[in-house]
Design brief:
alpha/beta, Malonyl-Coenzyme A Acyl Carrier Protein, domain 2, Alpha-Beta Plaits, four-stranded antiparallel sheet, globular, Malonyl CoA-acyl carrier protein transacylase, transferase, Malonyl_CoA-ACP_transAc, EC 2.3.1.39, Acyl_transferase_dom
Length: about 325
């Protein structure tokens, strides 16, 4: 068994996430409290209070990072150590924290700023995203190119899995591309409930601010290989991390390629660490032969522990 951890991105958050683990695990609660101290506000209140600002990007990002890191620490406490890591968009920061490249407290403060800068880059209502299912990749890319010439910026921004690509850009352009792509046979196009045109050149102002912030941050060598969203390749050195993160904020996410790289490197068991199970479903669509789990609460945590013990007993019996 060769385990890879994959970390949840923005959009996976939900009110109450981690509450049970906070009440039952000292390691988990200590990590969440550590996040509160680093940020100067109450992370518990954000996670567990339905009236909180959890779905506002500048709060969503540190919340998902905090939860993912807390679960990562729980798993390591049980001796479950990944041999390779990756994360979807925001989740790449969780992966870098897990690898030792970024300090937890500094990463929390950085992603809160990242969320704010992303929101400021394009005023609310001027950007949009939509998931396109069952349409050929080349048709989506060609449609986006054609629409961009007449209606504004729209690109294929997230290559999630075979049969699902997310388009992103200026609202009018996304709407026009949606209309054209929905006319394709068997297609399904769903507008996403997001606040901006993420992973497009429209986020360049946020990328510039992120670049400045990263220049003041200590970035360390990785103890575990990290696969980048930007090209689906393993990040080669600590020096490559800052430019990769700057590019990532305004460039497409090649998630399918990330997963394929991990499989090529021998990963046969994927664990989605953090809220939700979207990445688990993506991996299953990419390669049905690998084992995939998600850990977001006590039940899923215990299920993974049980499966790993079963595997170890089987190996010992051989």
């Amino acid at each position: 068994m060769k385990i890879g951890f994959i970390y949840s991105g923005q959009g996976a958050q939900y009110h109450g996430m981690g509450k049970e683990l906070y009440e039952t695990s000292k390691t988990f609660s200590k990590t969440i409290d550590e996040a509160s101290e680093a940020l100067g506000w109450d992370m518990k209140e954000l996670l567990f209070n339905e009236a909180s600002s959890l779905n506002e990007t500048e709060f969503t990002q540190p919340a998902v990072l905090a939860l993912s890191t807390a679960i990562d620490r729980l798993l390591r406490e049980e001796g479950i150590i990944p041999e390779m890591v990756a994360g979807l968009s925001l989740g790449e920061y969780s992966a870098l924290v897990a690898s030792g490249a970024l300090k937890f407290d500094e990463a929390l403060r950085l992603v809160q700023k990242r969320g704010r800068w992303m929101t400021e880059a394009v005023p609310s209502g001027e950007g949009a995203m939509a998931a396109v299912m069952n349409v050929d990749r080349q048709i989506i890319e060609q449609t986006c190119e054609e629409v961009s010439r007449s209606h504004g910026v729209v690109i294929a921004a997230n290559y999630n899995m075979p049969g699902q690509i997310v388009i992103s850009g200026e609202t009018a352009a996304v709407e026009e591309a949606q209309q054209r792509l929905s006319e394709q046979p068997k297609s399904k196009v769903v507008r996403l409930n997001v606040s901006g045109p993420f992973h497009t050149p429209l986020l360049a102002p946020a990328a510039d601010k992120l670049e400045t912030a990263l220049s003041h941050l200590a970035i360390h060598e990785m103890s575990i290989p990290v696969v980048s969203n930007v090209d689906g390749h393993v990040i080669s050195s600590a020096e490559e991390i800052a430019p990769t993160l700057v590019k990532q904020i305004k460039s497409p996410v090649y998630w399918e390629e990330c997963v394929q790289t991990m499989i090529e490197k021998g990963i046969d068991t994927f664990v989605e660490v953090g809220p939700g199970k979207a990445l688990r479903s993506f991996v299953k669509k990419i390669d049905r032969k690998v084992a995939v789990f998600n850990v977001e609460n006590s039940q899923t945590f215990e299920k993974l522990i049980s499966k790993i013990k079963e595997y170890e007993e089987t190996q010992n019996d051989k």
